Amino acid sequence: MSIDRRSFLKLAALGGGAVFASSLPGCAAKGSQGDGGDFYFVQLSDAHWGFQGPKVNPDARGTLPKAVAAVNALPVRPDFIVFTGDLTHTTDNPVERRKRMSEFRDIVARLEVRDVHFMPGEHDASLDHGKAFMELFGATHYTFDHKAVHFIVLDNVSDPAARIGEEQLEWLAADLAKQPEEARIVVFTHRPLFDLAPQWDWATRDGAKAVDLLMPFQNVTVFYGHIHQENHHRTGHIAHHSAKSLIFPLPAPLSQPKREPLPWDPEHPYRGLGFREVEAEGAKLSIEELPVERA
Amino acid sequence: MGDRRTFLLATALFATGIGGAVRAGDAPRVIKVSARRFVFTPNEITVRKGEPVIFELTTEDVFMGFDVPDFNVRSDIVPGKVMRLSLAPDKAGRFTFLCDVFCGEGHETMNGTLVVT
Asked: B69, A198: Cβ pair inside 8 Å?
C-alpha cells in the first residue's frame, strides 16, 4: 500500500500537477497505539453548493462534480473521505437549503468510496442550528476509529455564535477520557479552533477549551476548512491544517482590508481550489494537496 | 486565550451594569450603533485614542453580535434590549468591527470600521 502511494506521488509530481507534499512535524508518535496499517483519506471542504458568482467561479455548478471525478480517478482508492463543512452556500430559505443539500448529496453519491463522513459549516447549519443538516446527513458531531487512529468530528457551527458549547465540550472530555495519552487522534472541524483571524470571523469562540482538552494527548492533528486556503498552524504540539475550497479561494488572513473572494483567473481556471490527501504511514501523517483539475 | 476570556467576562459584567465604573472626569461618550441584517449604522465610527466610550447597541430585527477583535471586546445584541459595551482604545488605527453571530445570507459582509485617531 505505502509503496503504491509513494509511486503514485512520484508520478503525480512528474506529471506536473500542483502537488504539494509535506510531512507534519509533531505528528510522529513516540509509541503508536497498535499497528493499524498504513492508509490514506481524502479531505474535501467548502463546496458551497448553490453559490452564484461568475466573477469568482463561472463554473460554480461544475466544480464539485469535477472534484468528485478527480477523487474517483485517484490511482489508489482512499479508505474514506471527509467533507469538512460548508457543503452548501447559505440561504435564508429553509426549502432552498434542503434542496441544495439534496443536490449536493446526489453529486457526492457518485464518489466510488462508500465511507464518507460529513460535518456542517456555518453556511449549512448556523441559521437552523443544524436541523436541515441532521435531516439529510445525520449527526453534527461524532467519533469513529480507523486502523488505530481515533477521529473526532467537532461541530463549531450549529451555534450561530460560533461556539462548540458546554454540552459538546463535556461530550469531548468524556470521549477523550477513554483514550490513552499516546492515542493517535485526528480532529475534523469546520472553523479554526484557534484565533486565526477573528476580524474575519476565522475563529471559534470557545475553541481554546477544546484545544485545552486535547493538549494532554501527544499525537493530535486538526484538519479544518472555512478559510478556503491552506494554512498551517500550531498550538503547542497540536498541528492545525486548513483545506482549500471547492468554490473560490479567499485571501491570506488579514492580508487585505476585506475578506473577499479572490477573482477567477481565466488564464488559470480553478487556481486555488483543490482537495487534500492525508496519508497515515505508521505513526506519521503527511499531506498532499491536489488540484480540482490538472493543468 | 485565557486573557481574552477574562477580558470578555469583565466586558460582559460591565455591559450588564455589574461593574466597570468609569473614573470621575472621564465620562464616556455614548455612541449609538443600530444593527439590522446586514448592516451596522453607522458603519464607520471615529474615536480618539484613550477616549472612553460606551457603545449602545440595538438590533432592528434578529439576534446579532458586535465584536471588535483588535480590542478583545464584544457583546451580543439582543432584540428589544439596549446592550452597552465599553471601550477605551489604547492604540490608533483602523480596526474592523463585525457581527459575530451568523444572521443570514449577507452575514459575511456585516462589518464596519472603528477609526482611532
From this structure: yes
